Every structure is written in C-alpha cells, then in structure tokens.
Structure prediction request, 169 residues.
Amino acid sequence: MVIDENKVVTLHYKLQRDNENGELVEETFGSKPLVFLYGTGQMLPEFEKQLAAKAVGEEVAFGLKSTDAYGEYNPEAVVSVPKAALGIESEADAEKILVVGNTLPLRDQQGRNFTGIVKEVDPQNVTLDLNHPMAGVDLYFSVKVEDVRPATESELEHGHVHGPGGHQH
Ligand SMILES: [Zn+2]
Prediction:
C-alpha cells in the first residue's frame, strides 16, 4: 500500500534548517513516530506532495522553500506594544516573563492563540516578533515511511486519526 488520499500514514522524520547540513530542529527517530491522516490539510501541502505514492519502508529526503513552508519573514510583524497591554499582573512577573528571547503565548481579539518572541524591553514598551519561529527558513526533511493503512469511516468523518498516535475517543 502506498501513501494516498484518505490513508493513515505513520512515519519518522528529521527536520533541519536550510539543508541536509543544517541545524537539527526536531526528529522522531528513536521516539514516537508521527501519525496523520493524509490529504486533510494537517500537514504542509508541499510536505504531503513529496510523500505521495511512497510505500512502507521507503526513505525520502527533500527540501522545502520557506515560501512552501511557514512563509516569508515579515518585518512588519515586529511590533512595539505597551507593557500594560500584555495583562501581566505584577512587576515581578513582568521581570520574569519579559526577557529577550522568551516566547510569549498571546491571544487576539478573536480568541486565536499565537506567540510572540520578545526582542526588546524598555520601561514602557515591549518589542515582539510575531512571525512564526520558522518564517523565512527553508526546511529539510528526511523521512522514513513506517506504515500506511486505509482510514476507517469514523476517522474520515472526524478528519483525524484514532488509536495510537491519534485521538483516543
Ligand atoms: Zn475522532
């Protein structure tokens, strides 16, 4: 069986920045594999495209341009906000949280979660980089396909995998 729409794919991968010699970002080899329902938009579209028709046991390595991954780096997404707008309770908390390099969990007015990386702190304001941490970065994946099976009817209905590596319900 090969990877195709409506298949549950189990794979191990290694992700590096830039190319095959780049810094390791994450890898599943030696721990729990990634399990996902192919063709439902859970993964980057280009990532899925590279895996089409691959069989169990196959190994594949490929690069993704940042534009096919998490997008270009947007300099306009670096913003200065008043400290008071961040809703931090006390000055002591602020000192702990507002440290250059820290990632802050934030929520917009629609209730969507996103993150901002602290770039600069002055007495009144904080400069946050709201770009995705991998924005502007080319990615390099090394993948080994471990298993491919047809999705069950209820998996297709729910749009996600059930059982090991998926939803337990
Ligand atoms: Zn479900």
The two ends are 26 Å apart (CA to CA). The pocket of zinc ion is lined by residues 158, 160, 162, 167, 169 (CB under 6 Å).
